[in-house]
Amino acid sequence: xxxxxxxxxxxxxxxxxxxxxxxxxxxxxxxxxxxxxxxxxxxxxxxxxxxxxxxxxxxxxxxxxxxxxxxxxxxxxxxxxxxxxxxxxxxxxxxxxxxxxxxxxxxxxxxxxxxxxxxxxxxxxxxxx
Length: 129
Hints:
Layout (H helix, E strand, L loop, with lengths): L9 H11 L2 H15 L13 E14 L6 E7 L4 E7 L12 E11 L2 E5 L2 E5 L4
Parallel strand pairs: 3-5
Antiparallel strand pairs: 1-2, 1-4, 2-3, 4-5, 4-6
């Protein structure tokens, strides 16, 4: 039986978790909580071929030059897993850089076993959220 956050012992359990987790795990938990509070689906729970809203932190941004069309490739992490975002025909998007929190919407697909959303609608989430 899990202890409710407001129940006696809930504070002690949370304190013990904070003391035993690494800073990376704590950051991932905080990012996951932010994602859920903004109404997003955790990346680890995404279903292929379904539209989804995801909130996460940009981990990396890369330009994949192709012969036909350039592609801006972004890795987004929400504390549960990562997803690749690909904007075809874009070389850069102002404001999208590592550390920025994004809310994106689009259809999830699998590309070589990696969850991917092509040309997602996006919104930069203010850091004070």
